[in-house]
Amino acid sequence: MSVPKVSVCIITYNHERYIRQAIESVLRQKTSFPIEIVIGEDCSTDKTRSIVEEAQKQESERIKLLKRDANVGMMRNFLETYHACRGDFIALLEGDDYWTDPGKLQRQVELLESHPNWSLCFHSADYVDGKGRSLGYRHPQSCNETLDVGEIAKRNYVQTCSVMVRRSMLPQLPDYFLDLKLGDWPLCILAAKQGPLGYCDAPMAAYRVHDGGVWTSGANDVKIAAVIDMYLRVLRDNPDLHEEIRDAIASDRQEAIAWLQESLELQTKSWTWRVGSMVTWPARALHKRIALWFALAAIWYRFTSFD
Predict the structure, then answer these.
(1) Which pTM value belongs to this model?
(2) In the beta sheet, which residues pair with residue 41?
(3) Nearest-CA neighbor of 140 among 273, 263, 250?
(4) Taking the CA of residue 63 as centre, how many other CA atoms within 13 Å lie in the half-sphere pointing to its CB?
(5) What is the distance between the alpha carbons of residues 39 and 185, in angstroms, rounded to a whole number?
(6) CA gap 136, 70 in Å, rounded
(7) Are strands 120-128 and 63-67 parallel, antiparallel or unpaired?
(8) Beta strands at 146-147 and 89-94: parallel, antiparallel or unpaired
(9) Can you give the pLDDT at residue 273?
(10) CATH numbers and ranges of domains, the chain
């Protein structure tokens, strides 16, 4: 296998309905440079492993398959797959998402090469359901051309399936990632310490919202706890970010909770989620508002007392 300019880092677990589309969307990329696809398969209980094994046999020169002997969990699978990538740039993709523009990789590489101070490049993504039908939502809906660490700490503008990292600026991810419940946001915060995040205003990927999704299927209180935990762990390891993150939260409290609100409200697009709900819409809305403000209060208290 030739030395790749871009490594595509794919993690997958129980994605038998989606992983083939994810891989095919990468293979359809038109580039002027070599790429490799590094797939971390986390000992799925469905047919995901056989599907990725078949793909690897057909594209043995381009696909490197990392098969876990036991389920190691999303974050360990991600770290080990990320660290196995050899390219100058690493593009991220989860096994239930896919790319929609065959020029995505070429465009992002050209942007990163023309902006050598950028630590990563990202773009917008359209939200689809489990069957690939549009949910009528795009993230981010608007964004500055570049984001600094204070801006990305305030709100997560980035979908994992849109990220291309400059590996020289983020060659290793810290061990505390193993304990996190989400990885894209802290990755972007750490990258922004090295250089601005560059935004490409083009929807070139689809982010899938479905009942089996690790994040979208989680309970609201678990999501809030995960975000709080992420902030605290990043701050413990990066005390130099304390003032920037605290000031970002304090400057606009509505911005601080907007990302959480969007994530929670998106679940209402799912018919099965609506039917399965055991509380009325007014009661659920009130519960969310109370939970979000308690979360914000907890974050603010911890930031102001952080040593």
Answers:
(1) 0.81
(2) 12, 67
(3) 263
(4) 23
(5) 21
(6) 38
(7) unpaired
(8) unpaired
(9) 42
(10) 6-208 (3.90.550.10), 220-304 (no CATH)
Place of tokens 């002997």: 69
Determine the pLDDT at residue 260: 56
β-strands 63-67, 89-94 pairing: unpaired
d(CA 259, CA 159) in angstroms, rounded, equals 12
d(C-alpha 184, C-alpha 243), whole Å: 22
Q: How far apart are CA 78 and CA 83, in angstroms?
A: 8
Which residues in the chain land under pLDDT 70? 1, 212-221, 223, 245, 247-307
What is the full DSSP assignment across 71-123?
---HHHHHHHHHHT--SSEEEEEETT-EE--TTHHHHHHHHHHH-TT-SEEEE
Q: What is the pLDDT of residue 279?
A: 43
Give start and end residues of each alpha helix (H) in the chain. Answer: 19-27, 48-58, 74-83, 104-114, 149-154, 184-194, 220-237, 242-251, 253-265, 271-276, 281-304
Q: CA 158, CA 289: separation in Å to the nearest integer?
A: 24
Which burial class, exposed, middle or buried, applies to 36 when counting CB atoms under 10 A from its CB (0-12, 13-18, 19+)?
Answer: buried
